[in-house]
Amino acid sequence: VQLQASGGGLVQAGGFLRLSCAASGRPFGNYFMGWFRQAPGKEREFVAAIRWDDGFTQYADSVKGRFTASRDNAKNTVYLQMNSLKPEDTAVYYCAGRSIYVATWGYWGQGTQVTVSS
Fold first, then answer.
1. Is 75 helix (H, G, I), strand (E, B) or coil?
2. Alpha-carbon distance 62 to 60, whole Å?
3. Where are the beta strands (DSSP E) in 52-109?
4. What's the rounded Cα separation, in Å, for the pair 112 and 29?
5. Which of 71, 72, 97, 115 is most buried as measured by Cβ atoms within 10 A of its Cβ?
6. Distances (CA, A) of 42 to 36, 78, 90, 104
């Protein structure tokens, strides 16, 4: 399984970015695809997840109402639309995958840097 994240960059507070995660290597039915982030000096934290089959989503409280996870089954790609960005959203963002039957995120992509300036 390969996960390829992209779309990070530098944006001003209040702006937006869309991250993409291209997935390959297996069928992703019965999988959750997730987004995590890690800021300097902090632990990696959960941001959002989407269930591949039906689009069910989950979000961290800190991003609810601002971030939206989505997926394009035909392209095997998941997205994270990030609106109303804040400086505290600055982090390396990672996409990840796990079976819906386990709790461990077993597949990880490389990170993409998101920097929000004030």
1. helix
2. 5
3. 57-59, 67-72, 77-82, 91-99, 107-108
4. 25
5. 97
6. 12, 25, 11, 20
Sign for the pseudo-dihedral over CA of 53, 16, 87, 64: negative
Q: Which two tokens stand for residue 25?
A: 């290597």
How many whole angstroms separate alpha carbon 107 and alpha carbon 23? 10
Closest-CA residue to 50 (of 81, 13, 14, 83): 81
Q: Give 95's strand partners.
A: 35
Side-chain half-sphere CA neighbours of 50 within 13 A: 22
pLDDT in tens, the chain (118 residues): 899 999 999 999 999 999 999 999 877 889 999 999 999 999 999 999 999 999 999 999 999 999 999 999 899 999 999 999 999 999 999 999 999 999 999 999 999 999 999 9
Contact (Cβ atoms closer than 8 angstroms) between residue 39 and residue 51: no
* Alpha-carbon distance values, 101 to 21, 95, 104 (Å): 21, 18, 9
